[in-house]
Structures are given as structure tokens and as C-alpha cells.
Amino acid sequence: MNFSLTKEQEMVRTLLKEFGEKVVKPLAAEIDAAERFPRETVEKMARYDMMGIPFPKKYGGAGGDNLTYAIAVEELSKVCGTTGVILSAHTSLGAHPIYQYGTEAQKMKYLVPLAKGEKLGAFGLTEPNAGTDSSAQQTVAILDGDNYILDGSKVFITNGGEADIYVILAMTNKSKGNKGISAFIVEKDFKGFSIGKKEEKLGIRGSSTTELIFENCMVPKENLLGEVGKGFGIAMQTLDGGRIGIAAQALGIAEGALDECVKYMKERKQFGKPLSSFQGLQWMVADMATRIEAARFLVYNAADKKDQKLPFSTEAAMAKLYAAETAMEVTTKAVQIFGGYGYTRDYPVERMMRDAKITEIYEGTSQVQKMVIAAKVLK
Amino acid sequence: MGVKILLEKCKGCKLCIKSCPFNAIEMKDGKAVLNDNCTGCGACETSCKFKAIEVEKVEKAVKDLSAYRGVWVFAEQRNGKLMGTAFELIGEGRKLADKLGVELSALLLGSEVASLADELVHHGADRVILAEHPELKLYTTDGYTKVITELVNSRKPEIILIGATNIGRDLGPRVAARLDTGLTADCTKLEIDDEQKILLQTRPAFGGNIMATIITPKHRPQMATVRPGVMKKLAVDSNRKGIVEKVEVTLEKKDIRTIVKEVVKSAKQTVNLIDADIIVSGGRGLGGPEGFKLIEKLAGELGGVVGSSRAAVDSGWISQDHQVGQTGKTVRPKIYVACGISGAIQHLAGMQSSDCIIAVNKNPDAPIFDVADYGIVGDLYKVIPMMVEEVRKVREA
Amino acid sequence: MKIIVCIKQVPDTNEVKLDPKTGTLIRDGVPSIINHDDMNALEEALELKDRYGDVEITVLTMGPPQADVALREALAMGADRAILVSDRAFAGADTWATSNTLTAAINKIGDFDIIFCGRQAIDGDTAQVGPQIAEKLDLPQITYVQKMDISADVGTVQRALEDGYEIIEVKMPCVLTAIKELNTPRYASVKGIFDAYREKTVENWTAKDIEINPEIIGLNGSPTNVRKTFTPEPKGKGTLLTGCDRDTVCDLFGRLKEKHII
Question: Is the model's pLDDT at C236 over the cut of 60?
């Protein structure tokens, strides 16, 4: 059992840490306050091959692996939860299904620019009436000559409005239930596709979360992703991988919060002593650090299993469940440790706490993760 | 060739660990043990009170060094004006020459610079070696190195000091390499060892975190560059007499492989931190570039110059020529006011020899207060305006 | 065009702290980085490569085996070839001995138009190795390079002075040393990092490989020796004035006047 990273992975971590500190961190508070999508950061990330880490070089990727990608999301999320999810949604949800299920032509046309970061990706499954119950799809796709016509709407789509390429799930055959859902690659400029409401959120406020509206949207039939009726399986598989990304984001947010605590506890004095000398707080920190360590192993294990092409679905669910709960707990404790100052915007922990909450909800709520895990264990 | 620790003599006192510049000694079962970092430098040998460390030294053929006598100082001039470092070096060289009982000579290179020679004598030189040639008007590596090394080979000084200016740091290593001798850079202290009569060259390393004393035992001349603003120049004595010796210079255009096309003075206001008597510096605590307006105000009232920590420069709040510190300028003004500067060791390295340090910082534990002569813990945006007023009052009084 | 960039792996001296109990440097956990000025030299070479295409960049370092990581980072940024000159015999070298070693390695590499170094390393802070390599190779040198252009085999270089700069023309081959004003170094790219470890190699040369006289390398070959190291004296305790209001400021100026400081 080898728990160490390769030299390449260590160097990528160092790169992302430096990039995070110098490029991402200075913007974190501002993009949160202004709810601004950090387009300039995404362009810089593209320049350094960060937008296609787990994809082969022949598809424009960096030729890396899922563990390295998870580390990248982790390091970015330490300083900015928003930037972490932009990368995660783009890579795992937008680009990965095309890599996994696309034809060679589709990969060359869509995966290459996504992996190079020339285009941004997104994934549309959730609908107003289909959240946890994702199979209750109401968006339809009807084949008409050379095109599928899509009608319906998606909601809560990360990178919505900013992305160029969207993987959209729609019903091609209502009577078949789950087996009547298909996946499509939709470009932002397709006729009949528009962006609806942009959500105002509690956290990850720099991330663009929007409604997608399809009204007689014409999608060329070559853009069917995978086979007809296999869309639900594609969606579930995609979310499995996406969970690793979100687990890494949650892990990063927790680590970032703990780092801020450690720094503050050494500086801040009360009763003539630094906060770090009070046992009550020391014990809190011990709990936080231990949970983070456990979360880290779960995340890396899931990514590693995926890299080894072993089943990883349960491991990813465990990682996401545990890391998200850890992020929520650690960031809440962090605000507590900072006290009044932690409740203000002068310090980043209140933002980290707001960012942490969504990790327990999207890409499968913690309850969904428990369903997945229990199903496997009780099989 | 190597270092050996005699375990039977080792008492485990750990003094050697402190003395090792390479972290090469560790404790194992109460005794000192060498690890892979050991370079065999032998610095530990003298530190051991129990003679438990032996350094095998390889006997090399020793050059005859007794022929080398005299202290030389490179008197840098630009555009027909002597740089401050020339006088500082003479001040320091005088001390060394007196201790050794030898002559102090100033090396003056240039074109039509003979009139500068007297200034050098008045500042303490016994002799000025004047090398004039049209090709020496502007500094070039090739021109100056050729002339200086030829003079050194014929006259054999035992010590040469060069100011660590942009030019000095270009010239010094080239000359040292051509003469196959040692050069110690950026010395902050120079002394003569009582017994061996060799030059002890002390300088900062590791970003100023440690000081090292370097020697050049078997090569001559012993060369050192000295930071401008560190050594003190002597008082001018216009009655002082000395020898101005004009020497033959053989130099041709083809000896010089670079062509200086243009010399441009910076468009920005020159910040002469080195010569300033009073410096007011701003750091990260200013919070932004606007803070420097306040710093300028106080500097203006005090008749001083604006300085900066590296943090403020790196944040783009002020240009690098204001930077004081290990990678900026070393200053020793009469008064140094540090505003919103925490006092990281790299900054201290550049200003801690100031005669009087006044610090204003929100954080009572800021390390700057450890070196400050006077400290005020408070918001600089409240304190500095009050200081500006006080200075005005004092001036008008 | 062939460019050799000399780099040094150094501890990040911003992170180096003193152990207050032993007075020695705490080097554990201090990250190793490519020296800042060397990064500027490497970046300039990479920009020339971006601009002209037909540029081969060889990165060279003298160091312990762990300097491999620094070379990999340079390869990840885009260098073509990396050479680690490493041998116990080189340990303890001062700048004269170091430049002898690097010169021998450069002679073995053979062909080049420019040798690019950083002005100085943040651990030694001497700025000597670049010029000393130039001397031993008998090449023209320009230090403190803050801007440069290449045309045919002539370099037009802007060389920084304290109060301005000079424009200097030099014919290649030549030695240049870079300062931070020259450019903003790029990061390595993720793809570059994987390629550096999987597609590219680091050549390892020992003292024997570069055929160098053992008497002019390492500690033995160094004209300067470290006699001792010590931590700088902390100044005596100053006075922390109480408060931060008008009275405090008056108190301060009172004391300064008393001591004839102002």
C-alpha cells in the first residue's frame, strides 16, 4: 500500500499551490462579494494546462490522471471554493462524459477545446422537478430529420451562461422511464438555447449558477452522446466521477479554513496568551485536523481507484459524503475560533463556511451518497 | 580529506552543531555524528572545547605570499565624479593598512580624471594610482579588468577592496577570476587577524539569517567587495599629502568586446537612500499605495527620503528603487522610521545599523520593535499625521 | 540559437528561520526553489524560443542529487535539455571552484551562443559565478540585464545602473546575468510537468564526466574558506512607548530632541 505521491504529482501540487496563492487568492473575496465569474483566472488556468488534467495529450489534455486532477481542485479550493468548483464542473461534468462516451469525431470537435481550456464545459441534468429524483426528466428531445429538437429547462447549472459546451440530458422516449433518457452535446449558440435566471446564492457566489432554457432547440443528430436511451447511465457514471471533484473541493475548503485558524491562533492573544495555548481550542483543532486527514485519504483513494480502472463509485460516494460534512464542520468551528472577527468579511472563514454548505448538496446530496453506499454494503 | 569526530572525546555538548553552516551534525545516542551534508569545511573543529573533532587537511603547495603588500581600494568614478563608496572604502582601507603597517592606495581609472586624485588623498589615501585612457572613460568589463589585473600582477597588493555597486559587482569577480584568487562579496565587516595578519571578511548569507566570516588563506590578493553605505568615510583633511602616480595604460579598442551605445539616467526621481540621513519607510501595514502619500509627507517634513519594505514593492505600491533590505538597499541613516513594517529579518538586514530606529505598528509583537530604539503601537494612519504636526512645530520653534 | 541557462536550487530564504534555542538555521520543511534571478534568465531564453522558434535551451546546474527537481521544473517550463553536474567532490565549493566546474561542463556541452545566469543566488548572494564563468571561457559579459534584443549574432542589452541604465551592444557568444526587472517568469504547465518526468531526461554528470582537475573544485579547490558562522547580534532592547495618542508622539519627540537626534 503506497500512500506517497509521484514526483510529478508533487510538482503539480506545488504549481497549483503557488498559482492559488498568487493568482487566485487575491481575487477570492472580491468575486464572492460581487458575484463575479473570474474569467481571467480561467484563461490563466487554460494557459497552464490546468483545464484538462486527466485527459490524454492527443485530446488536448495534460496527460495526467484523476488523482492529480483532484489535487488541483483541492489546492484551488483552499483559497477559493468558487474557482475549485469551476474547474471541477468543467472537467468532471462537462468534459469527462465526452471523453468517456464520445465518438472520435465528437472528441476531436469538443473534447480537445475543452481540455485545452479554450472552451468551458457544463452539465445539465437537474430540473425544477428533478433534483434528487433525477430520473424524473421533463426536458424532451424529439428526432426530426437531421436534428433533435429539445424542449424544456434545466436549473442550478454550474458554469451556466459562462460555458460554451453543455452536456444535456433529455427524454427521447417517455414510455421507457430511465431507459428513455439520452445525452446530447449542446453548443451555447445553438438556435433555441438560452440562459435563464442566474441564482443568487449563499456561497460559491462567483460561480455562475443558472437556468438553461430549451425552446425548439435544434441539436444536430451527430451530437447525440453515446447511444439513444443510455443517457441515464451516462449521467450516473459522470456524477460518480464528479463526486471525486466535489470531494476534493470540500477537502480543500476544510484545509484552507484550518490553515487560517492556525495562523490566527498564533497571532491573536486573549488573557495575555495566544489562542493556541488554550486547551479547549487545541482540542478543537485536533478534531478538525484528524477529520481532514481522514477525508484526504478517502478522496485520494477514490481518485486512485478510478485511475486504476477499478470500481470506484462507492468510494467516491464515501469521499464526497465525508469530505462535505468535514468541510461544514471545520469551517463552522473555524468561524467559532475566530470569534467576532470570523463573522466579518475581514477574514475569509465566513466565506469558507458559506462555500462549504453546497458541497453537502450538489452532485448528489449527502442523503443520496448514503443511498449509494448502503446499496453497495447491503447488496 | 575529511572531518572525523572522536566519539570517545565527544561529551555531547552540541557546540559543534551550532557552528556548522551546513546542518551536517546530528546527535545520536548522546554523541555528535556527521551526516551527508558535511562538506569538510572544518568550521566545527575550532568550536569543540574537548578536541573531539579532527580535520584532515591536504597539504597543497603554498604560493609565496610574502611578496604581496599593500592595501588597494578601487575608487569608482562615473562621469568624472567619485562615488561615495570610494571614500567609504578609503576609510575602511585606512584602518586595515594602519593595522598592517602598509601603504593605502586608491586605484583611479578613467579619462581626464586626474583632478579627482587630490580628493582621494584628502580622504585618507597614501597614494593614488592613476590610470587614464580614452577607452576607460566609460566602465567596460574588458577595459577595466585588463588594466587592473596588469597593475596587480606587477605591483602585488595583498588586499583589494571594491565597492559592491552594479559596476563593482561586475568588475570584482572578473578580476578575481583572472587573478585566480578569492573574492568575498558584500562584506559588512573587515578586520585583520592578529596572528596570521590575514583579512577577516564578514558578510551576511541566507538572506541575512546568518553571518559568515571568510578568509582567503592561500591566495593573493585577498579581494572583497563592500556594500555602499556600510563603512564610514573619514573626515576630510585638505592638508593631507599623498603621491599621485600616473601609470602607463596599454589598451586598444579591440581589447574591449562590448560597446556602450548610450547611458540613460532614469526618468524617475532618483531615490538616494544610501546617502540619506533620514528615511521614512512604509510596509504592508499601509494597506495600499495611497499610504505612501502619508509617508512622503512625513519624509518631506523631516527632510528625508521615502523607503519601502519588500512587501510593499512586491505589491506594486511603490517602485523597487525605494526598497530597503536584503534584496534592496542597505542603509544606515541617522533616523529610520518604519511605518507598518513588521520587521522581517530580510528587512532588518538592510536597516538595522541605522543610528536611531523608530517603529510604528499595530502589532505589539512585530519583530521590528526588537530592533527599534523607540516604538509606538498603534494605527499609523493616526500616529503619522500627529508626527507630521510635531515635526512642523519643532521646525518652526 | 543555442542557449545554456545556469540555475541553482536554493532554499527559499524568505521561509528560513532561526531556531531561537540553538541559533542555527531551521532548514527542515523549507521548500527548495529555483533561484529567482535564474528564473528570469530561463524565462528570457523561453521567450526567445517562443519568438524565434529555432532555439535550443540547455539548463545546467551544479548541485546535490535533489537538484534534479529544479531541473525538472525547468524542463516543465519548456527547456529542451537538462544536465545535473553532481559529485561529492564538488561539495563546499566557493564561487571560484563552482565556476571552474560549470565551465568544464559548458565546454563539454560545446556549442552555444549565449550563457544566461541569474545575477545572484539568494543563499550565497555573491553575484560572482556568472562573471567568473565568463572569464574562464574568455567571453564578454554583461551583468544586470534588464532588457534585451537579439539580432543575427549581436545582442543589444539594457544594463541596469543604480540611477538609470546603459544600452550595450555585444557580439555572441557572450555571458549575460539577469535581474528581476527583465521579465515575469511563467509557471510550469501541468502538461509540461508530466512531460518533464515522463518524456524528458536529466543527464547526470560526475567530476570524471567533465574531465576536471580535482584540485580546482570543491572545498579543496576554493581560495576562500568559511572560518566561522554566527547569528547576527540582536540589538539591545529599545523603548516601547505607552499609548499611541498625541502625548505619546510628544514624548517621542521630546526624547529625540534630548538625544540630539533631531
Answer: no
Nearest to A53 among C72, C190, C195 (CB): C190
In this prediction, residue C23 carries a pLDDT of 61
C253 → closest Cβ in B357, B371, B394: B394
The Cα–Cα gap between B325 and B342 comes to: 13
Considering only CA atoms, which of C82, C163, C189, C63 is closest in space to residue C121? C63
pLDDT at residue A283 greater than cutoff 70 = yes
Measure the CA–CA gap between A29 and A79, rounded to whole angstroms: 10
Angstroms from C151 CA to nearest CA on chain B? 15
Q: What is the pLDDT of residues B145-200, one digit of tens each?
A: 999 999 999 999 999 999 999 999 999 999 999 999 999 999 989 999 999 899 99
Chain B residues with CB-CB distance to C134 below 8 A? 141, 174
Environment class of C20 (CB within 10 Å of its CB; exposed 0-12, middle 13-18, buried 19+)? exposed
**Over chain A, what is the mean pLDDT?**
96
pLDDT in tens, A339-357: 998 998 878 999 999 999 9
The complex's ipTM works out to: 0.92
Q: Name residue, grid cell 579532527.
A: B54
What's phi and psi for B253, nearest 5 deg? Answer: -55, -40
Greatest Cα pair distance in chain A = 78
Model confidence, pTM: 0.84
Contacts of C136 in chain B (CB under 8 A): 177
Residues of A in contact with C31 (CB under 8 A): 14
Compare CB distances from B260 to C18, C168, C237 and report the shortest one's residue: C168
Torsion of CA B310, A76, C43, B321, to 10 degrees: -10
- Are the beta carbons of A6 and C197 separated by less than 8 Å? yes
Rounded to whole angstroms, how far apart are CA atoms A325 and B6?
Answer: 57
Q: Which chains touch A (3 or more CB pairs under 8 A)?
A: C
